[in-house]
Amino acid sequence: MSCHRQLPRGLRAEFFNALNRANFRDPVGSARLFGRPNFGVITQTFPARVIQLGLKLYY
User: What gap in Å lies between CA 44 and CA 1, rounded to an integer?
Assistant: First the structure.
């Protein structure tokens, strides 16, 4: 005898920066760096693409 029933479920996918474009952080710029060669230069970016998957089971 089998006791099998179908559980309701939900699948979710979220994509951030799916096209993988560069998201730059703010440029370097403080009063103590004014006049130096790296003043106003962008040296960092935010993380690349992020993909999240989730599965929810209701019982």
Answer: 62
Burial class of 18 by CB neighbour count within 10 A (0 to 12, 13 to 18, 19+): exposed
Report whether pLDDT(30) > 70.
no
Residues 19 and 32 sit within 8 Å (Cβ to Cβ) = no
Query: 3-16: per-residue pLDDT in tens?
Result: 667 778 888 999 88
| Pairing label, strands 9-16, 50-57 | antiparallel
Distances (CA, A) of 34 to 9, 31, 45: 57, 5, 22
* Domain ranges, ordered by start, for the chain: 9-57
